[in-house]
Amino acid sequence: MSQKGSVLIVTSDTLLGSLLQRALQAQGYETALCRSAAAALAQLATLVPTVLVVDLALSDDTGWGLLRQARARGLLAPRVDEQGNTCLPVVLLSFNPLQSRCRGELRPLACLPRICPLGAVLRLVAHACAQWSSETAQAPVAASETGLPTGEDWRYA
Question: Tens digits of per-residue pLDDT, 93-140?
Fold first, then answer.
């Protein structure tokens, strides 16, 4: 893994995916790019990234569905930020304010609109990687300690 951290990018948008991957690699991050929720779940089974950048509009599922499945399978666990808040190490793209119920349920690190400055994504990834890259090798916070639902408690919106 890169000293700066690793980033899993999940988007079915070819241009967005390659832009994010090139920009993050230029900043020194190790990246992996998945074009579907199924590919991301398979990648998460073998790779523990420092942070995920997930587009909510995927070809085979929604980003919310991907996060729910990853949590239910034990592939993605919440972390504690510097303020002591529990959140998933995920930056979501294509967020819509009408999806605030899902945001409260899954507690991602950040939610950005589809059209946002690339610098905003890079700053969020840099912040998350600086905070959590040393923790990636350690066990993340157990779901039972976070108050977040687990297993059968996850509901689809």
Answer: 987 776 777 777 888 888 898 788 999 999 999 999 988 876 544 334
Average pLDDT, the chain: 82
22-36, 56-70, 124-138, range with the lowest pLDDT = 124-138
Nearest to 52 by CA among 17, 100, 83, 84: 17
DSSP 3-state assignment of 63? helix
Assess contact for 19 and 118: CB atoms under 8 A. yes
Tokens 């605030």 belong to residue: 100
Q: How far apart are alpha carbons 17 and 14 in whole angstroms?
A: 5
User: Do 6 and 136 form a contact (C-beta atoms < 8 A)?
Assistant: yes
The rounded distance, in Å, linking the Cα atoms of 157 and 65 is 9
CB 89 within 8 A of CB 51: yes
Instruction: For the domain covering 6-153, report its CATH number.
Output: 3.40.50.2300
Angle at 147 between CA 113 and CA 62, to 5 degrees: 35
